[in-house]
Amino acid sequence: MKKIGLTGGIGSGKSFVAKQIEAMGFPVYYSDDQAKKVSDKNPFVREELISLLGPLVYQNNSLNREYLRKQLFSNDGLRQKVNAIIHPIVRADFSNWAKKHENIDLVFNEAAILFETHAYKNFDAVILVYAPEELKIERLMKRDHSTLAEIKAKIKSQWSDAKKKTLTRHHILNDGKTSIENQLNSILERLL
Predict the structure, then answer these.
(1) Strand runs (DSSP E) across the chain, as ranges?
(2) Residue 23 confidence (pLDDT) above 80
(3) What percentage of the chain reaches a pLDDT higher than 70?
(4) What confidence tens digit (pLDDT) does each residue in 126-171 have?
(5) Which residues contact 159 (CB under 8 A, 6 or more apart)?
(6) CB–CB of 6/17 below 8 Å?
(7) pTM for the whole thing?
(8) 2-8 and 125-130 as β-strands: parallel, antiparallel, unpaired?
(9) In sequence order, what are the residues at sequence separation of 6 or more whose Cβ sits closer than 8 angstroms to the Cβ of residue 36?
(10) Cα gap 131→137, rounded to integer Å
(11) For 15-26, b where at least 16 C-beta lie within 10 A, e where not — what string?
(12) In what order do the strands lie in the sheet with 170-173?
């Protein structure tokens, strides 16, 4: 079994590509979804985040994501501390999940910041999904109803696609024109 990371900057469409991979019969672990569950339900994470950010970080017994987002996008050091609390728990959960799929040739881990956290080193290969910045902005404005300034801050908080491309040979352009299926088939053929 090979463990394959699937990543891309915000608005790149990596979740869309993950669904395509699932439709092809490969299991996909969604790290970002698991991180949300861990943030809401794990007592250790709750305690650490309250200690780091104060009681406003939780509201109505769940993570106050808007408050957290505002804190993180203006403070790289704080973002790294929050990642250091949540990501080891999610990585351990992925390892346990992968063991349940040992009889499958490829398993995938969809995660937004594999490169930024250096977690990409834990995979046999990584696929980068990328899109033109103007398209990412358009997608995020529709999805999140954020302002242009907020979206640009989110994009700026992650590594550039150009920097990520230097760390993996597997790239998928998700521009709404180029065939995702053809790109995926070519990459999967090499990985298998």
Answers:
(1) 2-8, 28-30, 58-59, 62-63, 106-110, 125-130, 170-173
(2) yes
(3) 100
(4) 999 999 999 999 999 888 888 888 888 888 888 999 999 999 999 9
(5) 9, 115, 116
(6) yes
(7) 0.89
(8) parallel
(9) 63
(10) 10
(11) bebbebbeeeeb
(12) 28-30, 106-110, 2-8, 125-130, 170-173
Q: Tokens at residue 5, please?
A: 């990371």
- Phi and psi, residue 73, nearest 5°: -75, -10
Contact 7, 128 (CB under 8 A): yes
First to last CA, the chain: 10
Lowest model confidence (mean pLDDT) among 51-65, 100-114, 134-148: 134-148
Tokens of 11: 């608005």
Candidates 137, 168, 175; CA nearest to 153 is 137
Q: Are 104 and 2 in contact (CB under 8 A)?
A: no
Cα–Cα distances (Å) from 39 to 29, 44, 76, 82, in that order, read: 17, 9, 19, 10
